[in-house]
Amino acid sequence: APAMSSASARTLAACARGPRARSTRTRRLGVSASTAGRDVSRARAVARDDDASGSVIPRFGEGGCFVDHCDAATVSRVQEALLASTSTSSRSGKTGPGRLSSLTFAVKDNLDVRGARTGAGSPLWLATHPSAAKKSACAVAALARAGAVFVGKTQMDELAWALQGENAHYGTPVNPAAPCRIPGGSSSGSAAAVAAGFCDLALGTDTAGSVRVPASYCGVFGFRPTHGAVSMFGCVPLAPSFDTLGWFARDAETLQRGGDALLPDDSSDESAAPPDVFSRAAIAEDAFEACDGATAEALRLCVERLAAKNARVFGAANRQSVRLGGGDASEAFSPGSLPPAPPLAEWWDAFQTLQKREVWSALGAWIEAHDARLEGFGPGVRDRFRAARDAARDATLNPEAELRIVARAAATRDAAAARLRAITRDGAVVVLPSAPGPPIPRTSAAQEVEAFRASQLRLTCASGFAGAPQVTIPAAALLRIRDDVANSSSAPVGVSLMSAPGTDKALLALARELTE
Question: What is the pLDDT of residue 15?
Protein backbone atom coordinates (compact mmCIF):
# COMPACT_ATOMS: atom_id res chain seq x y z
CA ALA A 1 0.00 0.00 0.00
CA PRO A 2 1.24 3.55 -0.64
CA ALA A 3 2.70 5.40 2.28
CA MET A 4 0.30 7.55 4.32
CA SER A 5 0.82 10.37 6.74
CA SER A 6 0.28 9.65 10.42
CA ALA A 7 -2.75 11.97 10.42
CA SER A 8 -4.27 10.11 7.48
CA ALA A 9 -3.63 6.80 9.17
CA ARG A 10 -5.33 7.98 12.33
CA THR A 11 -8.36 9.20 10.39
CA LEU A 12 -8.70 5.87 8.60
CA ALA A 13 -8.28 4.04 11.85
CA ALA A 14 -11.09 6.08 13.37
CA CYS A 15 -13.36 5.00 10.52
CA ALA A 16 -12.34 1.41 11.12
CA ARG A 17 -12.80 1.20 14.80
CA GLY A 18 -15.98 2.94 15.87
CA PRO A 19 -16.86 4.34 19.29
CA ARG A 20 -16.52 0.99 21.05
CA ALA A 21 -12.75 1.01 20.55
CA ARG A 22 -12.18 4.19 22.52
CA SER A 23 -10.50 3.95 25.88
CA THR A 24 -13.86 4.40 27.60
CA ARG A 25 -15.19 1.94 30.09
CA THR A 26 -18.50 0.16 30.13
CA ARG A 27 -20.24 -0.19 33.44
CA ARG A 28 -21.11 -3.87 33.51
CA LEU A 29 -24.43 -4.82 34.98
CA GLY A 30 -24.28 -8.16 33.20
CA VAL A 31 -24.16 -11.59 34.77
CA SER A 32 -20.89 -12.69 36.28
CA ALA A 33 -19.78 -16.19 37.11
CA SER A 34 -20.52 -15.56 40.77
CA THR A 35 -24.06 -14.23 40.25
CA ALA A 36 -25.37 -16.25 37.31
CA GLY A 37 -28.20 -18.54 38.28
CA ARG A 38 -28.95 -16.54 41.42
CA ASP A 39 -29.60 -12.94 40.50
CA VAL A 40 -29.88 -12.84 36.73
CA SER A 41 -32.77 -10.36 36.87
CA ARG A 42 -30.33 -7.63 37.85
CA ALA A 43 -28.62 -7.91 34.47
CA ARG A 44 -31.09 -5.93 32.41
CA ALA A 45 -28.89 -3.42 30.61
CA VAL A 46 -25.43 -1.98 30.23
CA ALA A 47 -25.00 1.79 30.62
CA ARG A 48 -22.02 3.48 29.00
CA ASP A 49 -20.11 5.71 31.41
CA ASP A 50 -19.38 8.29 28.74
CA ASP A 51 -22.92 8.46 27.38
CA ALA A 52 -24.21 11.87 28.44
CA SER A 53 -27.73 11.00 27.36
CA GLY A 54 -27.90 8.29 29.97
CA SER A 55 -29.17 5.81 27.39
CA VAL A 56 -28.70 2.12 27.98
CA ILE A 57 -28.00 -0.92 25.84
CA PRO A 58 -30.95 -3.19 26.64
CA ARG A 59 -30.64 -6.81 27.52
CA PHE A 60 -34.24 -7.84 26.80
CA GLY A 61 -37.17 -6.35 24.92
CA GLU A 62 -36.92 -3.64 22.27
CA GLY A 63 -33.35 -3.54 20.99
CA GLY A 64 -32.28 -6.29 23.38
CA CYS A 65 -29.82 -9.00 22.50
CA PHE A 66 -31.39 -11.77 24.62
CA VAL A 67 -34.64 -13.61 23.89
CA ASP A 68 -37.58 -13.10 26.23
CA HIS A 69 -38.62 -16.77 26.25
CA CYS A 70 -35.42 -17.63 28.12
CA ASP A 71 -35.98 -15.32 31.07
CA ALA A 72 -34.11 -14.98 34.35
CA ALA A 73 -35.95 -17.84 36.02
CA THR A 74 -35.21 -20.15 33.08
CA VAL A 75 -31.55 -19.16 33.05
CA SER A 76 -31.34 -19.92 36.77
CA ARG A 77 -32.85 -23.38 36.32
CA VAL A 78 -30.67 -24.15 33.31
CA GLN A 79 -27.49 -23.05 35.03
CA GLU A 80 -28.26 -25.12 38.10
CA ALA A 81 -28.83 -28.15 35.86
CA LEU A 82 -25.60 -27.49 33.97
CA LEU A 83 -23.68 -27.18 37.23
CA ALA A 84 -25.18 -30.43 38.49
CA SER A 85 -24.32 -32.16 35.21
CA THR A 86 -20.79 -30.80 35.34
CA SER A 87 -20.36 -32.00 38.92
CA THR A 88 -21.55 -35.47 37.94
CA SER A 89 -19.16 -35.57 34.98
CA SER A 90 -16.33 -34.39 37.20
CA ARG A 91 -16.93 -37.22 39.65
CA SER A 92 -16.94 -39.71 36.77
CA GLY A 93 -13.76 -38.24 35.30
CA LYS A 94 -15.43 -37.08 32.08
CA THR A 95 -15.03 -33.33 32.38
CA GLY A 96 -12.31 -30.94 31.27
CA PRO A 97 -9.93 -29.05 33.55
CA GLY A 98 -12.27 -26.10 34.14
CA ARG A 99 -10.31 -23.93 31.73
CA LEU A 100 -13.28 -21.53 31.34
CA SER A 101 -14.27 -21.36 35.01
CA SER A 102 -13.90 -17.56 35.15
CA LEU A 103 -16.00 -16.90 32.03
CA THR A 104 -19.67 -16.46 31.16
CA PHE A 105 -21.30 -17.46 27.88
CA ALA A 106 -24.49 -16.89 25.88
CA VAL A 107 -26.04 -19.11 23.22
CA LYS A 108 -27.66 -18.28 19.88
CA ASP A 109 -31.30 -19.33 19.92
CA ASN A 110 -30.98 -21.93 17.16
CA LEU A 111 -28.85 -24.06 19.52
CA ASP A 112 -30.50 -26.31 22.07
CA VAL A 113 -29.94 -25.71 25.76
CA ARG A 114 -31.38 -28.36 28.02
CA GLY A 115 -34.31 -26.93 29.95
CA ALA A 116 -34.85 -23.97 27.60
CA ARG A 117 -36.97 -23.63 24.48
CA THR A 118 -35.36 -23.13 21.07
CA GLY A 119 -36.96 -20.37 18.97
CA ALA A 120 -34.54 -19.96 16.04
CA GLY A 121 -35.62 -16.34 15.60
CA SER A 122 -39.07 -17.45 14.47
CA PRO A 123 -42.38 -17.20 16.38
CA LEU A 124 -43.66 -20.04 14.19
CA TRP A 125 -40.75 -22.31 15.12
CA LEU A 126 -41.23 -21.46 18.79
CA ALA A 127 -44.97 -22.20 18.59
CA THR A 128 -44.47 -25.52 16.82
CA HIS A 129 -41.69 -26.58 19.22
CA PRO A 130 -43.28 -25.75 22.60
CA SER A 131 -41.22 -28.13 24.74
CA ALA A 132 -37.91 -27.30 26.33
CA ALA A 133 -34.89 -29.07 24.86
CA LYS A 134 -34.11 -32.35 26.56
CA LYS A 135 -30.44 -32.24 25.68
CA SER A 136 -27.98 -29.44 25.08
CA ALA A 137 -26.13 -28.91 21.83
CA CYS A 138 -22.65 -30.42 21.96
CA ALA A 139 -21.00 -27.00 21.96
CA VAL A 140 -23.13 -25.80 24.87
CA ALA A 141 -22.27 -28.89 26.86
CA ALA A 142 -18.57 -28.46 26.07
CA LEU A 143 -18.47 -24.89 27.41
CA ALA A 144 -20.38 -25.93 30.53
CA ARG A 145 -18.03 -28.85 31.14
CA ALA A 146 -15.11 -26.45 30.87
CA GLY A 147 -16.64 -24.38 33.68
CA ALA A 148 -18.21 -21.47 31.78
CA VAL A 149 -21.44 -20.04 33.21
CA PHE A 150 -24.55 -19.84 31.02
CA VAL A 151 -26.28 -16.42 31.05
CA GLY A 152 -28.98 -16.65 28.36
CA LYS A 153 -30.05 -17.26 24.77
CA THR A 154 -29.55 -14.56 22.17
CA GLN A 155 -31.62 -13.01 19.42
CA MET A 156 -30.99 -13.95 15.81
CA ASP A 157 -32.25 -13.39 12.29
CA GLU A 158 -35.27 -15.48 11.38
CA LEU A 159 -34.21 -19.13 11.00
CA ALA A 160 -30.67 -17.80 10.42
CA TRP A 161 -31.38 -16.89 6.79
CA ALA A 162 -30.34 -13.25 6.76
CA LEU A 163 -27.21 -11.23 7.39
CA GLN A 164 -28.31 -7.85 8.73
CA GLY A 165 -29.37 -8.67 12.29
CA GLU A 166 -32.87 -7.29 11.68
CA ASN A 167 -35.78 -9.51 12.71
CA ALA A 168 -39.28 -8.53 11.59
CA HIS A 169 -40.82 -10.22 14.62
CA TYR A 170 -38.46 -9.41 17.47
CA GLY A 171 -36.71 -6.27 16.28
CA THR A 172 -33.03 -5.42 15.86
CA PRO A 173 -30.55 -5.75 18.71
CA VAL A 174 -28.68 -2.54 19.42
CA ASN A 175 -25.15 -2.57 18.06
CA PRO A 176 -23.11 -1.40 21.11
CA ALA A 177 -20.30 -0.19 18.84
CA ALA A 178 -22.56 1.81 16.53
CA PRO A 179 -26.09 2.14 17.98
CA CYS A 180 -27.55 3.77 14.85
CA ARG A 181 -26.32 0.97 12.60
CA ILE A 182 -27.27 -2.68 12.12
CA PRO A 183 -25.43 -5.27 14.24
CA GLY A 184 -25.15 -7.84 11.45
CA GLY A 185 -26.61 -11.32 11.52
CA SER A 186 -27.73 -13.90 11.76
CA SER A 187 -25.84 -14.23 15.07
CA SER A 188 -26.71 -10.62 15.91
CA GLY A 189 -27.63 -11.10 19.56
CA SER A 190 -24.50 -13.09 20.35
CA ALA A 191 -22.20 -10.46 18.85
CA ALA A 192 -24.08 -7.64 20.58
CA ALA A 193 -24.06 -9.43 23.94
CA VAL A 194 -20.29 -9.80 23.81
CA ALA A 195 -19.75 -6.24 22.59
CA ALA A 196 -21.97 -4.88 25.37
CA GLY A 197 -20.13 -6.84 28.05
CA PHE A 198 -23.08 -9.06 28.99
CA CYS A 199 -20.92 -12.16 28.59
CA ASP A 200 -17.34 -13.16 27.80
CA LEU A 201 -18.09 -15.71 25.09
CA ALA A 202 -21.12 -16.24 22.90
CA LEU A 203 -21.95 -19.08 20.55
CA GLY A 204 -23.26 -18.41 17.06
CA THR A 205 -23.60 -20.25 13.79
CA ASP A 206 -22.07 -19.33 10.46
CA THR A 207 -23.39 -20.56 7.12
CA ALA A 208 -22.56 -17.63 4.84
CA GLY A 209 -20.92 -15.22 7.27
CA SER A 210 -23.27 -15.16 10.26
CA VAL A 211 -20.42 -15.02 12.79
CA ARG A 212 -17.82 -13.15 10.78
CA VAL A 213 -20.17 -10.36 9.68
CA PRO A 214 -21.64 -9.39 13.09
CA ALA A 215 -18.15 -9.66 14.59
CA SER A 216 -16.96 -7.09 12.05
CA TYR A 217 -19.98 -4.81 12.54
CA CYS A 218 -19.90 -4.93 16.36
CA GLY A 219 -16.13 -4.59 16.70
CA VAL A 220 -15.44 -7.94 18.37
CA PHE A 221 -13.46 -11.07 17.54
CA GLY A 222 -15.27 -13.88 15.74
CA PHE A 223 -14.25 -17.35 14.63
CA ARG A 224 -15.63 -19.76 12.04
CA PRO A 225 -13.86 -23.13 12.43
CA THR A 226 -13.05 -25.79 9.87
CA HIS A 227 -16.32 -27.27 8.63
CA GLY A 228 -17.16 -30.25 10.84
CA ALA A 229 -14.55 -29.48 13.49
CA VAL A 230 -17.27 -28.65 16.03
CA SER A 231 -20.38 -30.82 16.19
CA MET A 232 -23.63 -29.26 14.97
CA PHE A 233 -25.72 -31.66 17.05
CA GLY A 234 -28.53 -29.73 18.71
CA CYS A 235 -28.67 -26.97 16.09
CA VAL A 236 -31.62 -26.05 13.89
CA PRO A 237 -30.17 -26.69 10.40
CA LEU A 238 -30.11 -24.24 7.50
CA ALA A 239 -27.72 -25.52 4.81
CA PRO A 240 -25.78 -28.40 6.38
CA SER A 241 -22.87 -28.56 3.94
CA PHE A 242 -22.07 -24.94 4.86
CA ASP A 243 -23.36 -24.72 8.46
CA THR A 244 -20.70 -24.29 11.13
CA LEU A 245 -20.72 -23.37 14.78
CA GLY A 246 -18.70 -20.28 15.71
CA TRP A 247 -18.10 -17.98 18.66
CA PHE A 248 -17.37 -14.39 19.70
CA ALA A 249 -15.16 -12.71 22.29
CA ARG A 250 -13.89 -9.21 23.02
CA ASP A 251 -10.23 -10.28 22.90
CA ALA A 252 -8.20 -12.95 21.16
CA GLU A 253 -7.14 -14.66 24.37
CA THR A 254 -10.75 -15.38 25.33
CA LEU A 255 -11.52 -16.42 21.75
CA GLN A 256 -8.64 -18.89 21.94
CA ARG A 257 -9.80 -20.22 25.31
CA GLY A 258 -13.18 -20.90 23.75
CA GLY A 259 -11.43 -22.83 21.00
CA ASP A 260 -9.53 -24.88 23.56
CA ALA A 261 -12.86 -26.08 24.94
CA LEU A 262 -14.66 -26.54 21.62
CA LEU A 263 -12.07 -27.77 19.14
CA PRO A 264 -10.49 -31.23 19.01
CA ASP A 265 -7.23 -31.44 20.90
CA ASP A 266 -4.17 -31.27 18.68
CA SER A 267 -1.55 -30.79 21.38
CA SER A 268 -1.05 -32.32 24.80
CA ASP A 269 0.81 -29.22 26.01
CA GLU A 270 -1.58 -26.28 25.97
CA SER A 271 1.04 -23.97 27.50
CA ALA A 272 3.44 -24.51 24.62
CA ALA A 273 4.23 -21.73 22.15
CA PRO A 274 1.87 -21.43 19.19
CA PRO A 275 2.69 -24.03 16.54
CA ASP A 276 5.02 -22.63 13.90
CA VAL A 277 2.80 -23.66 11.01
CA PHE A 278 2.42 -20.36 9.14
CA SER A 279 5.19 -19.03 6.94
CA ARG A 280 3.72 -16.45 4.54
CA ALA A 281 0.72 -14.25 3.83
CA ALA A 282 -1.49 -14.11 0.75
CA ILE A 283 -3.25 -10.76 0.28
CA ALA A 284 -6.59 -11.37 -1.44
CA GLU A 285 -6.54 -8.44 -3.86
CA ASP A 286 -9.96 -9.10 -5.42
CA ALA A 287 -11.50 -9.21 -1.94
CA PHE A 288 -9.97 -5.82 -1.08
CA GLU A 289 -11.27 -4.47 -4.39
CA ALA A 290 -14.78 -5.43 -3.29
CA CYS A 291 -14.60 -2.94 -0.37
CA ASP A 292 -15.29 0.77 -0.35
CA GLY A 293 -12.17 2.88 -0.70
CA ALA A 294 -11.82 4.01 2.92
CA THR A 295 -12.29 0.49 4.25
CA ALA A 296 -9.79 -1.02 1.84
CA GLU A 297 -7.17 1.60 2.74
CA ALA A 298 -7.73 1.19 6.47
CA LEU A 299 -7.45 -2.58 6.23
CA ARG A 300 -4.27 -2.33 4.15
CA LEU A 301 -2.90 -0.30 7.02
CA CYS A 302 -3.87 -3.24 9.22
CA VAL A 303 -1.69 -5.47 7.03
CA GLU A 304 1.28 -3.23 7.80
CA ARG A 305 0.53 -3.55 11.51
CA LEU A 306 0.38 -7.33 11.12
CA ALA A 307 3.84 -7.20 9.56
CA ALA A 308 5.13 -5.13 12.47
CA LYS A 309 3.90 -7.81 14.88
CA ASN A 310 5.03 -10.84 12.86
CA ALA A 311 7.44 -10.16 10.01
CA ARG A 312 8.07 -13.85 9.48
CA VAL A 313 4.53 -14.34 8.14
CA PHE A 314 3.37 -10.87 7.10
CA GLY A 315 6.63 -9.08 6.25
CA ALA A 316 7.18 -7.77 2.74
CA ALA A 317 9.54 -10.62 1.87
CA ASN A 318 6.89 -13.24 2.64
CA ARG A 319 3.82 -11.32 1.54
CA GLN A 320 2.39 -11.88 -1.92
CA SER A 321 -0.74 -10.83 -3.75
CA VAL A 322 -3.28 -13.37 -4.92
CA ARG A 323 -6.74 -13.36 -6.44
CA LEU A 324 -9.23 -15.74 -4.85
CA GLY A 325 -11.03 -16.02 -8.18
CA GLY A 326 -9.58 -16.23 -11.67
CA GLY A 327 -5.96 -17.11 -12.12
CA ASP A 328 -3.48 -18.13 -14.77
CA ALA A 329 0.17 -19.09 -15.09
CA SER A 330 1.33 -15.44 -14.86
CA GLU A 331 0.30 -15.10 -11.21
CA ALA A 332 2.93 -13.80 -8.81
CA PHE A 333 1.82 -16.20 -6.07
CA SER A 334 3.37 -19.62 -6.81
CA PRO A 335 3.38 -19.16 -10.63
CA GLY A 336 1.45 -21.79 -12.46
CA SER A 337 0.62 -23.79 -9.33
CA LEU A 338 -2.87 -22.49 -8.56
CA PRO A 339 -5.86 -24.09 -10.24
CA PRO A 340 -8.18 -21.57 -11.90
CA ALA A 341 -11.60 -20.66 -10.56
CA PRO A 342 -14.40 -18.35 -11.68
CA PRO A 343 -14.07 -14.68 -10.67
CA LEU A 344 -15.04 -13.82 -7.10
CA ALA A 345 -18.11 -11.93 -8.34
CA GLU A 346 -19.61 -15.21 -9.59
CA TRP A 347 -19.11 -17.19 -6.40
CA TRP A 348 -22.21 -15.90 -4.66
CA ASP A 349 -24.49 -17.06 -7.50
CA ALA A 350 -23.20 -20.60 -7.10
CA PHE A 351 -23.39 -20.41 -3.32
CA GLN A 352 -27.02 -19.33 -3.24
CA THR A 353 -27.98 -21.94 -5.85
CA LEU A 354 -26.65 -24.70 -3.60
CA GLN A 355 -27.76 -23.07 -0.36
CA LYS A 356 -31.43 -22.65 -1.21
CA ARG A 357 -31.73 -26.29 -2.24
CA GLU A 358 -30.19 -27.42 1.03
CA VAL A 359 -32.40 -25.02 2.98
CA TRP A 360 -35.58 -26.40 1.44
CA SER A 361 -34.39 -29.95 2.03
CA ALA A 362 -33.80 -29.11 5.70
CA LEU A 363 -36.85 -26.94 6.41
CA GLY A 364 -39.28 -27.31 3.50
CA ALA A 365 -41.40 -30.07 5.02
CA TRP A 366 -41.86 -28.07 8.25
CA ILE A 367 -42.84 -24.95 6.28
CA GLU A 368 -45.33 -26.82 4.11
CA ALA A 369 -46.90 -28.31 7.23
CA HIS A 370 -47.23 -25.07 9.18
CA ASP A 371 -47.14 -22.08 6.78
CA ALA A 372 -47.40 -23.20 3.17
CA ARG A 373 -48.35 -19.66 2.06
CA LEU A 374 -45.27 -18.18 3.79
CA GLU A 375 -47.43 -15.55 5.43
CA GLY A 376 -45.69 -15.73 8.80
CA PHE A 377 -42.20 -14.86 7.57
CA GLY A 378 -40.61 -11.45 7.53
CA PRO A 379 -39.71 -9.60 4.31
CA GLY A 380 -36.51 -10.76 2.69
CA VAL A 381 -36.62 -14.06 4.53
CA ARG A 382 -40.01 -14.79 2.95
CA ASP A 383 -38.58 -14.05 -0.50
CA ARG A 384 -35.65 -16.41 0.06
CA PHE A 385 -37.89 -19.24 1.24
CA ARG A 386 -40.18 -18.65 -1.74
CA ALA A 387 -37.20 -18.91 -4.09
CA ALA A 388 -36.11 -22.12 -2.37
CA ARG A 389 -39.61 -23.58 -2.68
CA ASP A 390 -39.86 -22.58 -6.33
CA ALA A 391 -36.48 -24.16 -7.08
CA ALA A 392 -37.65 -27.41 -5.47
CA ARG A 393 -40.86 -27.39 -7.55
CA ASP A 394 -38.94 -26.63 -10.75
CA ALA A 395 -36.61 -29.53 -9.99
CA THR A 396 -39.60 -31.88 -9.81
CA LEU A 397 -41.01 -30.59 -13.10
CA ASN A 398 -37.73 -30.58 -15.00
CA PRO A 399 -35.13 -32.83 -13.35
CA GLU A 400 -32.72 -32.63 -16.28
CA ALA A 401 -32.54 -28.84 -16.07
CA GLU A 402 -32.11 -29.11 -12.31
CA LEU A 403 -29.14 -31.42 -12.76
CA ARG A 404 -27.48 -28.91 -15.08
CA ILE A 405 -28.10 -25.97 -12.70
CA VAL A 406 -26.74 -27.83 -9.69
CA ALA A 407 -23.81 -29.24 -11.65
CA ARG A 408 -22.71 -25.74 -12.72
CA ALA A 409 -22.93 -24.45 -9.16
CA ALA A 410 -21.10 -27.48 -7.78
CA ALA A 411 -18.36 -27.04 -10.38
CA THR A 412 -17.85 -23.44 -9.22
CA ARG A 413 -17.74 -24.59 -5.61
CA ASP A 414 -15.23 -27.34 -6.39
CA ALA A 415 -13.00 -25.03 -8.43
CA ALA A 416 -13.07 -22.34 -5.74
CA ALA A 417 -12.34 -24.88 -3.03
CA ALA A 418 -9.42 -26.34 -4.95
CA ARG A 419 -7.95 -22.91 -5.56
CA LEU A 420 -8.39 -21.78 -1.94
CA ARG A 421 -6.81 -24.92 -0.60
CA ALA A 422 -3.90 -24.49 -2.99
CA ILE A 423 -3.45 -20.89 -1.81
CA THR A 424 -3.42 -21.95 1.86
CA ARG A 425 -1.17 -24.96 1.50
CA ASP A 426 2.30 -25.02 3.01
CA GLY A 427 1.58 -22.50 5.73
CA ALA A 428 0.01 -19.57 3.89
CA VAL A 429 -2.48 -17.30 5.64
CA VAL A 430 -5.00 -15.45 3.46
CA VAL A 431 -5.69 -11.84 4.49
CA LEU A 432 -9.06 -10.48 3.40
CA PRO A 433 -11.70 -8.01 4.60
CA SER A 434 -14.41 -9.37 6.88
CA ALA A 435 -16.91 -6.93 5.34
CA PRO A 436 -17.00 -4.50 2.39
CA GLY A 437 -17.44 -1.58 4.78
CA PRO A 438 -18.90 -0.52 8.12
CA PRO A 439 -22.46 -1.59 8.94
CA ILE A 440 -25.16 0.41 7.19
CA PRO A 441 -27.68 2.53 9.13
CA ARG A 442 -30.67 0.81 10.68
CA THR A 443 -32.94 3.06 8.61
CA SER A 444 -31.55 1.95 5.25
CA ALA A 445 -34.05 1.28 2.46
CA ALA A 446 -34.75 -2.33 1.48
CA GLN A 447 -32.91 -2.00 -1.83
CA GLU A 448 -29.81 -0.67 -0.11
CA VAL A 449 -29.96 -3.50 2.41
CA GLU A 450 -30.13 -6.17 -0.30
CA ALA A 451 -27.34 -4.57 -2.33
CA PHE A 452 -25.08 -4.39 0.71
CA ARG A 453 -25.97 -7.97 1.62
CA ALA A 454 -24.96 -9.15 -1.85
CA SER A 455 -21.60 -7.36 -1.71
CA GLN A 456 -21.01 -8.78 1.77
CA LEU A 457 -21.76 -12.33 0.71
CA ARG A 458 -19.20 -12.20 -2.10
CA LEU A 459 -16.59 -11.91 0.63
CA THR A 460 -17.89 -14.55 3.00
CA CYS A 461 -18.61 -17.56 0.80
CA ALA A 462 -14.88 -18.31 0.32
CA SER A 463 -14.32 -20.18 3.58
CA GLY A 464 -17.68 -21.90 3.14
CA PHE A 465 -16.56 -23.31 -0.19
CA ALA A 466 -13.17 -24.40 1.19
CA GLY A 467 -14.44 -25.56 4.58
CA ALA A 468 -11.59 -23.47 6.01
CA PRO A 469 -11.24 -21.68 9.35
CA GLN A 470 -11.44 -17.89 9.42
CA VAL A 471 -10.91 -15.45 12.27
CA THR A 472 -12.24 -11.89 12.27
CA ILE A 473 -10.07 -9.34 14.06
CA PRO A 474 -11.44 -5.85 14.77
CA ALA A 475 -9.37 -3.24 12.96
CA ALA A 476 -9.35 -1.40 16.30
CA ALA A 477 -7.29 -4.23 17.79
CA LEU A 478 -4.54 -3.43 15.30
CA LEU A 479 -4.96 0.31 14.75
CA ARG A 480 -4.62 1.63 18.28
CA ILE A 481 -4.86 5.40 18.02
CA ARG A 482 -5.23 8.42 20.26
CA ASP A 483 -8.53 9.40 21.80
CA ASP A 484 -8.27 12.90 20.36
CA VAL A 485 -9.20 11.59 16.92
CA ALA A 486 -12.30 9.77 18.16
CA ASN A 487 -15.16 10.00 15.70
CA SER A 488 -18.59 9.37 17.19
CA SER A 489 -20.09 8.74 13.75
CA SER A 490 -17.60 6.03 12.82
CA ALA A 491 -18.35 2.32 12.92
CA PRO A 492 -16.21 -0.83 13.10
CA VAL A 493 -14.78 -2.97 10.35
CA GLY A 494 -12.80 -6.18 10.66
CA VAL A 495 -9.91 -7.85 8.91
CA SER A 496 -9.92 -11.62 8.48
CA LEU A 497 -7.29 -14.33 8.39
CA MET A 498 -8.14 -17.62 6.69
CA SER A 499 -5.95 -20.72 6.74
CA ALA A 500 -6.00 -24.34 5.63
CA PRO A 501 -8.66 -26.69 7.02
CA GLY A 502 -7.50 -28.26 10.27
CA THR A 503 -5.29 -25.36 11.37
CA ASP A 504 -7.91 -23.87 13.69
CA LYS A 505 -5.94 -23.78 16.92
CA ALA A 506 -2.85 -22.43 15.20
CA LEU A 507 -4.95 -19.66 13.61
CA LEU A 508 -6.44 -18.71 16.99
CA ALA A 509 -2.95 -18.63 18.49
CA LEU A 510 -1.77 -16.40 15.66
CA ALA A 511 -4.67 -13.98 16.20
CA ARG A 512 -3.74 -13.76 19.87
CA GLU A 513 -0.08 -13.16 19.07
CA LEU A 514 -0.96 -10.37 16.65
CA THR A 515 -3.26 -8.51 19.04
CA GLU A 516 -1.67 -8.92 22.46
Answer: 38
The answer to whether residues 503 and 469 touch, using CB atoms and an 8 Å cutoff, is yes
pLDDT at 443 over 90: no
Q: Structure pTM?
A: 0.86
Q: Which residues contact 174 (CB under 8 A, 6 or more apart)?
A: 57, 58, 63, 64, 65, 183, 192, 196
Res. 284: pLDDT tops 70: yes
Residue 249 contacts residue 220 (beta carbons within 8 Å): yes
Query: Taking Cα atoms as reference points, which of 242, 235, 259, 258 lies closest to residue 109?
Result: 235
Where does the pLDDT of residue 87 fall: very low under 50, low under 70, confident under 90, or very high at 90 and above? low
Supply angle C-alpha 453, 457, 460, rounded to 5.
140
Query: What single string gives the DSSP state of each residue in 368-397?
Result: HHH-TT-TTSPTTHHHHHHHHHHHHHHHHH
Nearest to 321 by CA among 306, 300, 342, 343: 300
Q: Determine the pLDDT at residue 446.
A: 83
Q: H or E segment at 138?
A: helix 138-145
Residue 303's nearest CA partner among 287, 327, 282, 325 is 282
Considering just the CA atoms, what is the radius of gyration of the chain in Å? 22
Bridge partners of residue 57, in order along the sequence: 46
Is 38:197 a contact under the CB 8 Å cutoff? no
- Cα(160)–Cα(188) distance, integer angstroms: 10
According to DSSP, residue 238 is labeled S
The amino acid sitting at 165 is G
How many angstroms separate the CA atoms of 174 and 46, rounded?
11
The answer to whether residue 271 scores a pLDDT higher than 70 is: no
Whether 85 has a pLDDT exceeding 80, the answer reads no
Residues known to be catalytic: 108, 186, 210
Query: pLDDT for 386-433, tens place per residue?
Result: 999 999 999 999 999 999 999 999 999 999 999 999 999 889 999 999
Report which secondary-structure segment, H or E, holds 428: strand 428-433
**Cβ–Cβ under 8 Å, residues 166 and 143:** no
Task: Evaluate the CA torsion angle 322, 323, 324, 325 in order and state its sign.
Answer: negative
What end-to-end distance do the CA atoms of the chain give, in Å?
24
Q: Which of 277, 319, 253 is nearest to 506 (CA)?
A: 277
Whether a cis peptide bond, with omega within 30° of 0, leads into 186 is yes
Mean pLDDT of 309-315: 95
pLDDT at 329: 40
Sheet strand arrangement including 45-48: 26-27, 45-48, 56-58
